[in-house]
Amino acid sequence: QVQLVESGGGLVQAGGSLRLSCAASGRIFSINVMAWYRQGPGKEREVVASIPSDGSTNYADSVKDRFTISRDNAKNTAYLQMNNLQPEDTAVYYCNAEVISAGFGRSKRSYWGQGTQVTVSS
What is the Cα–Cα distance from 96 to 17, expressed in whole angstroms? Predict the structure, then answer.
């Protein structure tokens, strides 16, 4: 089993910053892609940013130049640095990881964290 635990959410004023963390633990051989998604009030879940194991990054147009995704492979942890936050960034942010499990078989499976609330006041 693999667990993803997010932290770092909270309430911030417009223009402020937050840093989210996502720590993966359990029977992990390796992690392919780590990504951050968000789901705002009354909206569908959308991908915010992703980072494969090679360190390349991809961003949604709405967060380019404001958010930065990174990862520490040794710690199985991904981060999302969010700057110049705006009220429209208010959402529950979820971490997702595509994990290759340790042990016989090396199965591949996608895992989700429980989510962390980010609220941006105007």
Answer: 22
With beta carbons less than 8 A apart as the criterion, state whether 88 and 79 touch.
Answer: no
Bridge partners, 96 (sequence order): 35, 112
- H helix count then E strand count, the chain: 0, 11
Q: What are phi and psi of 74, to 5 degrees?
A: -65, -30
- For residue 7, give Cα distances in angstroms to 50, 65, 93, 94, 116: 17, 22, 10, 10, 6
Answer whether 86's CB lies under 8 Å from 63's CB.
no
Query: What digits encode the pLDDT tens for the residues 85-102?
Result: 999 999 999 999 999 999
Instruction: Write down the pLDDT at residue 104.
Output: 81
